[in-house]
Amino acid sequence: MTDVFKWLRGASMVMCAFSASVALPAHASSPKLLDCPLRDAPFSIDSPLVDLLLSDAAKAVINQHAPGLIAQIPPFLTGTTAPTFSAILQGRSVLVMVPGMKSFNTEPLDKALRALPVTTADKQARCVRYDNERPSFKLAKGKPRVLLFEKMTGFRDSPSVEAAKTAFQQLASRNGWALAVTDKGGAMHPAVLKKFDVVVWNNVSGDVLTLSQRKAFRAFVENGGGFVGIHGSAGDPVYFWDWYPDSLIGARFVGHPNEPQFQDAQIVLEKTPSGIRSGLGNGWVMNDEWYSFAKSARLNGAQVVATLNEDTYKPGINRFGDTPLVMGSDHPIAWTRCVGKGRSFYSAIGHRPETYSDERHLKLLEQAIAWTANSASSSCKPKAGK
Predict the structure, then answer these.
(1) End-to-end CA gap in the chain
(2) How far apart are CA 208 and CA 204, in angstroms?
(3) Which residues, including other chains, have CB under 8 Å from residue 38's CB and lie 6 or more apart?
(4) Per residue in 28-38, pLDDT tens?
(5) Which CATH topology does 145-373 take?
(6) In this model, does residue 23 exceed pLDDT 80?
(7) What are the start-end ranges of the H helices in 90-157?
(8) pLDDT score for 381
(9) Domain range list for the chain
(10) Could you read off the pLDDT of 65-100 as tens digits, one per residue?
(11) Residues 109 and 61: beta-carbon distance below 8 Å
């Protein structure tokens, strides 16, 4: 078994042990076909692996052109129940991971997949992992209004999700925030979002929003709303919505250490106009799972809040076993961005549940909420009318 399978198996054991599941039947029926992003897309080797596995016709084509390929994929990667790793992998990436398939000629397989008709049953099956349930909230007036969003279709690490939820609930109580929690994509609707100042994505993994929900959420941020992303919310190996990693987050995840996965590392804080690092000195040492990114978010216009001192831990190589995770002297781990008139904060800290009991980490999150909720922030354009 390759290193990537070993890494993913360890993560899948956590997911299987703690996740609540939503079934994705191969021929699901739905009273209304949602506008899920890849609903009408042709099959291809770049399709989400889950969409290939949900189609008997697609599986038959794969078996014809690459006999035995599907059988070589470990079962924990072939689930069609959300949350599932197969929702955050592409057919192409699985070919690379299977021993002996790196030199496989993908063109005939891709051509045959693209020739398949996309049936109504295919479209329904692809959309089952999305929802259009619009929750209703009653919020106190005159307080920062925070929506904690927890929908996952990819990897769900429930211990960290639950620890983060508890931490935000405690921070809300301490600071007088009006906090609401939801795992429904339908919350990304103009009528719901207008009630909030900040939306926090709590370790969200997988493609979770329909096209209309994407439009509503993007408009919320670009017109002056706040966004806070926590750890796994920028930790997927592939994204099917470029605006999210490239504009809202500002960097693409490439991996984290595996041997060992959790290490002590020195967090170094930088001076920023946001005030998010206030009272935290120059940094601290913490034990966690440390993300590396394809390039520094600083190069994409981010105002870096914290970096990692790579001399204090071993980045190792990525999950595919061939690319070093070393970023060098500029390894951002938390940063802010102005997105239109809105404010974005992302922190890669937070895989281990224990990090949400660390008062320094909590202070960082607390001050991040305060900054993103402040539409009159001097470092981003103010929201009109506020």
Answers:
(1) 56
(2) 8
(3) 47, 48, 51, 126, 207, 240
(4) 444 578 999 99
(5) Rossmann fold (3.40.50)
(6) no
(7) 91-97, 107-114, 120-127
(8) 59
(9) 3-127, 145-373
(10) 999 899 988 888 889 989 999 999 999 888 877 877
(11) yes
